[in-house]
Amino acid sequence: MKALFIKGRLKSTMLVSALLTLSTALSGCVNDNEANITNVGANKAAKQDVAPAEDRLATVEQDVETLLAKMTLPEKVSLAHASGKFHINAIDRVGIPEMWLSDGPHGVRHQIERHTWASAGWSDDYATYLPHLTSVAASWDVEMARLHGQVLGAEARHRKKDFILGPGVNLARLPLYGRNFEYMGEDPILAATLVVPQIKAIQANDVAATVKHYALNTQELNRTGVNAKPDERTLREVYLPAFEAAVKEAGVLGMMGSYNQYYGTNANQSKHLIMDILKGEWGYQGVLLTDWHVDINTYDAAVNGLDLEMGTDVADYQDYFLAKPFLEMIQAGKIPESVADEKARRILRVQHTIGMYDENRLPGARNTKAHQAAARKIATEGVVLLKNDLVGAKAVLPLDIKKLKNILVLGPNADKKHGTGGGSSEVKSLYEVTPLAGLKAHFGEQVNITVMRARSSDLAAIASDYVESRHWTGTPAWNISYFVEKARLNLTEQSWIVDSKFKAIAPANASNIANTQYITMAAKIKPLMTGLHQLNVETLGNFQLKINDDIVITHQINAAESANAMNKSKVIALTHAIELIAGKSYSFEIEYDGSEHFTLGWNAPGELFASEAEYIAAAKQADVVIYFGGLSHGDDRESIDRPDMKLPNSQDEIISNLIAANEKTVVFLVAGSAVAMPWAAQANAIVWGWYGGMEAGHAFADILTGAVNPSGKMPITLPARLEDTAPIALNDYNAKESLYTEGVFIGYRWFEQQKIKPTFVFGHGLSYTKFTLTDIALSAASITADEGITVTAMLKNTGKVAGAEVVQLYLHDVESSVDRPAKELKGFTKVFLAPGESKQISISLNKRDLSFWDINTNDWLAEAGDFEVLLGTSLDQIKLKASFNYQQ
């Protein structure tokens, strides 16, 4: 496979080119059965008559002004707000078409009803479910970013969408953040480099990309109210570069504002973020739109640059802040009409740019073989081999099919599908291959695969398999209500909880009485088999369970127990057997009064779980054990942050037991955020797979068996403890305000500054082959402000199998007037090499790469002096160093 490089970036590969060629050939096919020779020929003939996009783009500004001049003030205002959940109405009088938006950073979302959040019930709104953007980031490959964008753009266009609401580039500041899985890791340069080709590929399909969330949306805890207050240097160096690249390099047409406040006002109406930076300094010409249900007001949003209000929680669209109230303010002279002109102008500019007035607008394509192949390719490129030690004379991975007879597969993600969860990123996938299905497809009848679900020694909550009720993000969940008093007359809060277990969060040093919480939890439960279900409860506090309004379990602490301090720490175990019918929906309701915790579990007919003795015995007999663990969208999801960094449902205990029972245990984690791994030192093989999309199972099997050599690198740091991360260590994570006290020391920069060793560092990832990096050279020993510098080196595959390596360039300012990280990622390149093959890599730096944001001049500043170039294959594997001098 030949690779070409420009400025250190992988330009193309034969496989990606083949995928895109096939995608073009199948353009317009809704399913595989339509991909025939007739369609291919017809599409090729049609393309010959399509006017080049340049012809359309040459007259955009003229066309916009011509149309704007014909519009009345109410018509202009009507373009500044939604007229449906995901659309803006047409203005037939002047020929303006209806405009449609869709969620979809990882695939086009299923069709929503015009005026509700309910599904429209379409049968033909399936889409390709792509690997999540964390997987793209883990590929460290601009071609994977481009391929992801190409599929997403083509499918959005085929679904007649005008805006696709992605990609996302907020940074993983905190492992607990519920939306880390939607974004591109913790480093601003990694995210900025990858978002540009993705945006360009989306928009090449005549669809507007929408980069989000601008800016500082780094937690879901009180996401609409938390006040982000970083200093200006932190804002500029860390949290804005990816957005800046989206505007300046990619020409992004859509920008979605964030939920949070910025120095006391919502980010969607911040003068500094929007008028000063986005539309001022950067010269952004596209549309700034809101997410749904943000905290804005009419005047500030109007005059400070918000263009499109998409989802305000009011009864009528005319009551939106940028609807009737906006019109009335203009008519009263409080806001100039030019403000409405500018918002309409930006909407019209996007419409003309993406070809909404062009009869030759591209048709798009959906659910093609090429798109499915692309999903598999992206997923494999993002898998990270974290650890692969020798057992005897051979590494655990790749699996040797010739020597395997029995594989034991366990873990909550072994046969779990993730496409329908997570929130606005959900996808109605045409299909989804689970890890277990992928293994079975790969091995066929050649290997015996035994599947178990292990139960820990702790009482487990009722498994999600039985939970029929859903959180709006698509996750099986229970509704939870908090009340002021035992009578439950005054509701204080209502939310959702994933499992039938509860742990009270109480203020420090408060009394037990003061901390008593009165909650009600409710869910619809649907048994899988008819028969006797043994309900099991462990509680500290008063507990009552109703099924279909009948009390089946109750425990009330009596006065003597309450007075006895020892009983406050004594867990009460309760059981009750009940006959339930398969497929029937039962209403479960729990009432709990207490300051501690409870768990409701059960033993159901056709038990899903194996006991500790059973799974350990099976592990000892297996040739290899593969545990597919990690998180799900019950943990990684919009609207809620995780409570801690632990693997849920006592996975750590089970993993430790498996490692002790069989040294050839492969721990394969599927997750979008960092998790603690207390067993990492004992494990011989650890793999990280992310949410890999519809082809995840095939991609994971490709990696495990060596059909594809892993080349992914971690785009996030994997801390040993939550307390090691900056926001927690600095006590800067709460529901009121985020001060970003760590400054520019996000992620790996913080760990290096504090000399904290994580479990796995940023940029880490192993291979089944070996590489050497030699012969570093700089294009100059000294440069000035108007000069760049190019770093070259030789990379060689010294192993026995073909594979790709990511060469990472970190920069160190030897002497600076401000605190700078010891290493800052400034460039990277991914190179594929056959065994014994060598290639020269080349990465270029410019003045901006040397600069920090100077708060005195309010501009970028590169100080004169020496800079050290550090080349390596991860943050802690620096192989080569060289220095140069910068003269102002």
Automatic annotation (TrEMBL):
Identify the Pfam families for this entry. Fn3-like (PF14310), Glyco_hydro_3 (PF00933), Glyco_hydro_3_C (PF01915), PA14 (PF07691)
Residue span, PA14 domain: 473-620
The answer to whether UniProt assigns keyword Transport to this entry is no
Record flagged with keyword Lyase: no
Where is the secretion signal located?
1-27
Fetch the InterPro entries from UniProt.
Answer: Cellulose_deg_GH3, Fn3-like, GH, Glyco_hydro_3_C, Glyco_hydro_3_C_sf, Glyco_hydro_3_N, Glyco_hydro_3_N_sf, Ig-like_fold
Provide this UniProt record's keywords sorted from A to Z: Hydrolase, Signal
The record's listing under Gene3D superfamilies reads: Galactose-binding domain-like (2.60.120.260), Glycoside hydrolase family 3 C-terminal domain (3.40.50.1700), Glycoside hydrolase, family 3, N-terminal domain (3.20.20.300), Immunoglobulins (2.60.40.10)
> What family classification does the UniProt entry report for this protein?
Belongs to the glycosyl hydrolase 3 family.
Protein known as: Beta-glucosidase
Give the organism, scientific name: Colwellia marinimaniae
User: Lineage in the entry?
Assistant: Bacteria, Pseudomonadati, Pseudomonadota, Gammaproteobacteria, Alteromonadales
